């Protein structure tokens, strides 16, 4: 019931909770997508690594697609293609720099595709950083768990897939000239959720 004659039944301004939970007709905004994709990648990466450690034996690959794609567990102290085996701490610092760069870019993201792409990159970087800090031989020097063997050329993991996919999408977005966010540096009211 109305308290006073002529008073509207609803407020003229939307409630804060209604406007803060959805953007553009109920879809997730770019920053929410970034965070959600990063979390999904991180969880998938860590769950598959735990499963690989529990079920695979080093030196005993399991064929998935003939001998082209196999499950073959290794502990990688280096980067892709086993580069930098003797510089694990350098790779940790590089991964931390990428993490900081993605977090800085995340503040400006205003495009959903960029949000998903940065989420893939963030989730992959954090997934491998977890290994660098939490696995043997020790913090900052930990070996990354890799278990997906591609054609006998290299062995990777879910985090690596996310990082490579993100790199490909970044190249496409850059080629097409898709901006990360508003060009003037201003944040639009609906750029975030």
From TrEMBL:
<keyword id="KW-1003">Cell membrane</keyword>
<dbReference type="InterPro" id="IPR001872">
    <property type="entry name" value="Peptidase_A8"/>
</dbReference>
<feature type="transmembrane region" description="Helical">
    <location>
        <begin position="113"/>
        <end position="130"/>
    </location>
</feature>
<dbReference type="GO" id="GO:0005886">
    <property type="term" value="C:plasma membrane"/>
</dbReference>
<dbReference type="GO" id="GO:0004190">
    <property type="term" value="F:aspartic-type endopeptidase activity"/>
</dbReference>
<keyword id="KW-0064">Aspartyl protease</keyword>
<comment type="similarity">
    <text>Belongs to the peptidase A8 family.</text>
</comment>
<keyword id="KW-0812">Transmembrane</keyword>
<comment type="function">
    <text>This protein specifically catalyzes the removal of signal peptides from prolipoproteins.</text>
</comment>
<keyword id="KW-0378">Hydrolase</keyword>
<feature type="active site">
    <location>
        <position position="160"/>
    </location>
</feature>
<feature type="transmembrane region" description="Helical">
    <location>
        <begin position="150"/>
        <end position="174"/>
    </location>
</feature>
<feature type="compositionally biased region" description="Low complexity">
    <location>
        <begin position="10"/>
        <end position="22"/>
    </location>
</feature>
<dbReference type="Pfam" id="PF01252">
    <property type="entry name" value="Peptidase_A8"/>
</dbReference>
<feature type="active site">
    <location>
        <position position="146"/>
    </location>
</feature>
<keyword id="KW-0645">Protease</keyword>
<keyword id="KW-0472">Membrane</keyword>
<dbReference type="GO" id="GO:0006508">
    <property type="term" value="P:proteolysis"/>
</dbReference>
<protein>
    <recommendedName>
        <fullName>Lipoprotein signal peptidase</fullName>
        <ecNumber>3.4.23.36</ecNumber>
    </recommendedName>
</protein>
<feature type="region of interest" description="Disordered">
    <location>
        <begin position="1"/>
        <end position="24"/>
    </location>
</feature>
<feature type="transmembrane region" description="Helical">
    <location>
        <begin position="87"/>
        <end position="106"/>
    </location>
</feature>
<keyword id="KW-1133">Transmembrane helix</keyword>
<comment type="pathway">
    <text>Protein modification; lipoprotein biosynthesis (signal peptide cleavage).</text>
</comment>
């Amino acid at each position: 019931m109305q308290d006073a004659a002529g008073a509207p039944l609803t407020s003229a301004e939307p409630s804060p909770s209604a406007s803060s939970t959805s953007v553009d007709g109920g879809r997730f905004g770019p920053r929410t997508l970034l965070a959600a994709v990063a979390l999904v990648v991180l969880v998938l990466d860590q769950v598959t690594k735990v499963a690989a450690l529990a079920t695979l034996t080093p030196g005993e690959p399991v064929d998935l697609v003939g001998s082209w794609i196999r499950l073959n567990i290794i502990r990688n102290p280096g980067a892709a293609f086993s580069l930098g085996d003797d510089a694990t701490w350098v790779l940790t610092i590089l991964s931390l720099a990428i993490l900081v760069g993605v977090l800085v870019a995340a503040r400006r993201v205003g495009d959903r595709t960029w949000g998903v792409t940065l989420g893939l990159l963030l989730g992959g970087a954090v997934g491998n950083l977890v290994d660098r800090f939490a696995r043997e031989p020790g913090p900052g020097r930990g070996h990354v768990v890799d278990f997906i063997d591609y054609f006998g050329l290299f062995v990777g993991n879910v985090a690596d897939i996310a990082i490579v996919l993100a790199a490909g999408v970044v190249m496409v977005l850059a080629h097409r000239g898709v901006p990360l966010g508003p060009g003037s540096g201003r944040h639009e009211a609906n750029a975030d959720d």
